[in-house]
Amino acid sequence: MRQSLxxxxxxxxxxxxxxxxxxxRCAVYVFLATALTASSPAASAAxxxxxxxxxxxxxxxxxxxxFEKETKHKLVVSWAGSEAISKRVSDGEIFDVVINTATGIDxxxxxxxxxxxxxxxxxxxxxxxxxxxxxxxxxVSTVEGLRQVxxxxxxxxxxxxxxxxxxxxxxxxxxxxxxxxxxxxxxxSGAQIGDLLARGEVELGFQQxxxxxxxxxxxxxxxxxxxxxxxxxxxxxxxxxxxxxxxAAAFINAISSPQSAAAIRSSGxxxxxx
Length: 274
Fold this sequence. Notes:
Blueprint: E1 3-4, H1 18-35, E2 47-53, H2 57-71, E3 74-80, H3 82-90, E4 97-101, H4 102-110, E5 120-132, H5 143-152, E6 156-157, H6 162-173, H7 177-180, E7 184-185, H8 193-198, E8 204-208, H9 209-212, E9 218-223, E10 230-238, H10 245-255, H11 261-266, E11 270-271
Parallel strand pairs: 1-10, 2-3, 2-4, 6-7, 6-8
Antiparallel strand pairs: 4-10, 5-8, 5-9, 5-10, 5-11
Helix pairs in contact: 1-10
């Protein structure tokens, strides 16, 4: 039953229209050329616009701060939900570096919004469970325990992102979807389930481990049981409209380097193999 929330992305140029093919191919050439010198010090400090999901905020913020200190470049990072990021970039908003789910990055590359050749997988994160303060701590370490908690909870919150989509499928597999559908709250992309739990608006909540494990004001129970766990892969790529491709390539090299693995692990994610 274990599965990945995000399929491994495939090549981005196959089905594009001719003018998109030309635009994307030129962007690939720019990336390949600049990546060769991306690790060398920049001639002058640049400002880099980055957009990233809240789920990777802790790790990305730490790595970005180190990158700024080492290179003297300035990073302006915007945080949002994965669905909101996809929509903003699809609607024409330009960021030098885009971090999102692997599927989201792949889709934007196919639409010639991102440079497919610049894409790197950074980390994967699991889905976790939490309950509000003041209720008896339930056992969700087994599939049957999880099923009973779902049936007994007065209210349940799931995200509008990758974990939420997976949970909707999981509830069907557990045979509880119909019984609990009236109890489910699903806030807009980017909302923190931990905030709803901390305010007592819901009893039971699910979201990425990274968004729950370090938050306060509720009881963190841990990841889903291994038999029904699923992982979201987080990836990064350069925007085809970036005017700071060299600096963007340098940041991607930094965030996907072995030196960044410690920050990724401490945030609750697993670094992807290099």
